[in-house]
Design a protein that fits this description.
Layout (H helix, E strand, L loop, with lengths): L8 E8 L2 E10 L4 H12 L5 E12 L1 H16 L3 E5 L3 H10 L5 E4 L2 H9 L1
Parallel strand pairs: 2-3, 3-4, 4-5
Antiparallel strand pairs: 1-2
Helix pairs in contact: 1-2
Amino acid sequence: MSNTAPGSVLSQVDCFRGIPVMVITGRLDTISAPLFDEKASPVLAEAHGNILLDFSGLTYLSSAGLRSILRIIKHTAACGGRTGIIAVPSHILELIELSGFQSLLDIYADRETALEGCAA
């Protein structure tokens, strides 16, 4: 999947050990959040207790992006699990902490650690 529009978010969904991993790059903001939500809908249509979001390529996160993430958090909570974020850039981690989202998310340094954490 690719989208070369400025400010767009590229989202790829991979599945590892039965856990969806959404790879997010670029900006997750007012413009790109609706596209992200659309791409996330098929994953959220299924009961997934754990979903991982790979933020290694995320450059910007706005309040609209936080709303999109909250939608995923609510889905995994309703399925008895948690949402995890992987490889979070420091400036985005600071925003997540300021918004109070760190208590709603499991934060992992890398994909392998995240997959092990979800399996536990």
